[in-house]
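ok trying this again, last paste got cut off
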Amino acid sequence: MSAPDTLLYWEDFAPGEVLEIGRHTFTEEEIIAFAVQFDPQPFHTDPEAARGTFYGGLIASGWHTCAVGMRLMVQSYIGHAASAGSPGVENIRWLGPVRPGDTITYRRVVLETRPSGSRPGIGLVRSRTEALNQHGETVMTMEGWGMFRRRPAQ
């Protein structure tokens, strides 16, 4: 993988490559703040009410888990890549709760790459973002495509 100060192109992504993209510790305060604004369900916004739910306590919104992952993707590689956006996410799975105090490690796994059939200067990268808690349990996976410019001819 290229150094962070080197622009990454489609050719820099290899199927099978795994990259740890960062970690984040979720606090009760941020879980509630995110949920109040974007996912106001009681098990995300009210610690007392959350105790009586299926989860037995406050948990982060799955969308919060995804949003943190997106920030880490941009900080670790997209922000210094020849990114041309994304045609979308195919699959998000929330496999376990994220609780206050959990430290989640995010990693990117490149699943496949292929040149664009309609845009000669673009290549597509299908990857899976995985989020694991401090116990090594996978709490979220997200798969999707990224579009990256091809390396210019020398």
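PB: full thing came through this time. The beta strands are 18-25, 88-94, 103-115, 122-132, 138-149.
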